[in-house]
Amino acid sequence: MKVIVTKNAKELANEALKVMLEVVKSNPSAIIGLATGSSPIGLYKSMIADHLENGTSYADIKTVNLDEYVGIDESNDQSYIYFMKDNLFNHININLDNTNLPCGKVDDMQAECDSYTSLLNSMPQDIQLLGIGANGHIGFNEPGTAFDSTTHIVELEEGTRLDNARFFASLDDVPKYAITMGIANITNAKKVLVVANGANKAKAVYEMVKGEVSESCPASVLRDHKDVVLVIDEDAASML
Ligand code: GLP
User: Fold this and answer.
1) Pocket test for ligand 1, best of 140, 174, 195 (most atoms within 8 A of CB)
2) Residue 52 maps to a domain
3) Tens digit of pLDDT for each residue in 174-207?
4) From the CA of 133, how far away is ligand 1's center (Å)?
5) What's the total number of domains in the chain?
6) What is the CATH number of the domain that holds 6?
7) What is the pLDDT of residues 14-73, one digit of tens each?
8) Which of 89, 85, 83, 99 is nearest to 38 (CA)?
9) pLDDT tens, 149-165?
10) Tens-digit pLDDT profile for residues 81-107
11) What is the 3-state secondary structure (H, E, C) of 189-214?
């Protein structure tokens, strides 16, 4: 695992951008796995700025996203599909038909899980971007999730709901369930780029980099992956 410790948010975004652009430029029709949450926002801003300034094209890029809340759809500004359009897709020349997220509002959620796994099998990620939860979760794979899991429905931990409540009007509005790529779908990516900042991520970063490889810290699975780049700030690196 390559660890890059940066001094501030701008440097973090720049370092992450370099990793992302290496993939996008070497393969203009690459499949990139994307993430939501606050951690990737700086990178998305840098991708947009680079697209506008340097003309990096996403015309043939395909995307798959990690996860989505269950029970809300695109009309809800807290849905991850809304987030992706708002923070990235609407500002680069990507074809929306080439973007994929699991849907959190269908009658048969198990069928949605199965079809998302089939989709991922047919389009393995050249790179997967990840944030990390304070408890070490990746996507919405909470501690205890099997390393061989594929797309599934998860009941969110109380701590995860509390962490994400800042984006909602109240804790009651935070969905209790989510649909997420499984851990096997994530580690299937050729390359994994993890971004994390802030002291509240220090313990999870420590567990991922130096702790035991164990299902109690989902991110620790990345230690067995052959190509992982971790870009973090000094606060997130403070326990390393
Ligand atoms: C959510 C997302 C994860 C993300 C995590 C951390 O739970 N499902 O993909 O990595 O939050 O979020 P943040 O980057 O806002 O700290």
Assistant:
1) 140
2) yes
3) 999 999 999 999 999 999 999 999 999 999 999 9
4) 5
5) 1
6) 3.40.50.1360
7) 999 999 999 999 999 999 999 999 999 999 999 999 999 999 999 999 999 999 999 998
8) 83
9) 999 999 998 998 998 99
10) 999 999 999 999 999 999 999 999 999
11) CCCEEEEECCHHHHHHHHHHHHCCCC
Residues with CB under 6 A from ligand 1: 35-39, 66-67, 131-133, 139-140, 160, 164
* Closest protein CA for atom 9 of ligand 1: 139
Ligand 1 centroid distance, CA of 37 (Å): 4
Mutate which of 36, 44, 201, 235 for ligand 1? The one with the most ligand atoms within 8 Å of its CB, which is 36
Q: Exposed e or buried b for every residue in 27-57, given b needs 16+ CB within 10 A?
A: eeebbbbbbbbebbbbbbbbbbebbeeeebe
Give the distance (Å) from ligand 1 centre to CA of residue 61.
23
Q: Domain span at residue 181?
A: 2-233
Residue 86: the pLDDT is: 97
Residue 145 domain flag:
yes
User: Which atom of ligand 1 is the closest one to the Cα of 131?
Assistant: 10
Residue 240 within any structural domain of the chain: no
What is the mean pLDDT of the segment spanning 109-132?
98
Nearest Cα neighbor of 64 from 81, 79, 47, 51 is 81
